[in-house]
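= Tokenised fold =
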Amino acid sequence: MDLVKARLGWVQLYAQTGDAGLVCRHCGISRPTLCKWWRRYQAAGVAGLIEESRRPKRFAAQKVFAEQEVLVLRLRRERKLGIKQLRNELIRQHDLTLSLDTIHRVLVRHDEQVLKRPRRRVKGKIRYSQPIPGDRVQMDVYKIVPGVYQYTAIDDCSRYKVLSAFPRRATANTLIFLEQVIEEMPFAIQRIQTDRGLEFFAQAVQQRLIDWGCEFRPIRPRSPHLNGKVARTRRADLEEFWCTVDPREPDIADRLAEWQHHWNWFRPHTALSGASPIGRVIELMEKTPLREEVDVRFEPAEERMRHHDDRIDQALSAMK
């Protein structure tokens, strides 16, 4: 009501003086503002001085052609993708940009809005995220098909990840992948976190990490939630990449590199408020320590060779 009274004072002063410049200088408003409320006052009186909703009376309906609608429904039914995954796949695979609302309308129109797939809900777990890129990088190996193993490294803070495929789990392949991770991550890595897989516990692997100034932090047994980010990104890889290719294709390394680039630079992430991993890296660039700073803080004497058996590892730790 205070705004209505103010607007009424403007138009009444203008009615008395007829001098728009005087009214604008005295009331601290612009001429277009005075003209707007003067016209509305003349048309509807005091009621015209009440602010109206600026919501459009009509919305431009985005057209979805029949073949595009068939494509959305096929991806939904065959691959069980959520709405955001559908949008990402339409852009990546088919160069088709549809809004989330448009995709939702298509699904509702065909009674496909409820995604019928089991969801495992875990209560009582606290989700955490490291404050800066490189503070902790989660690493894991997953069998795609016999003879194809995906090595994955994902940054806990930014979700920036590095992928590679090898014919088997092996110390030599782990060393090659570590070289790739160090080279391709756009920040200094402070810690590597893995499960208790033997491929990470070879002495050559641990010594290489010490030489690089990276702390090796394997998780405790029966605590997969601590490596939750690498597990969730592995699921995204299966649903959005591996189901679209033949894992035994001769150019699978190039295809995997393309998917990694799409993930890091273009794919929006809900956990990052719709940003891409590289966007988060750039956002936190000033807070991210350089390699020299990480090397200064790293204490090689505090590191030791870890054993894959947690009970033996704990005993060795107590003896140190």
Summary: The mean pLDDT is 89. Residues 143 and 279 are 30 Å apart (CA to CA). The longest strand covers residues 137-145. The chain has 13 helices and five strands.
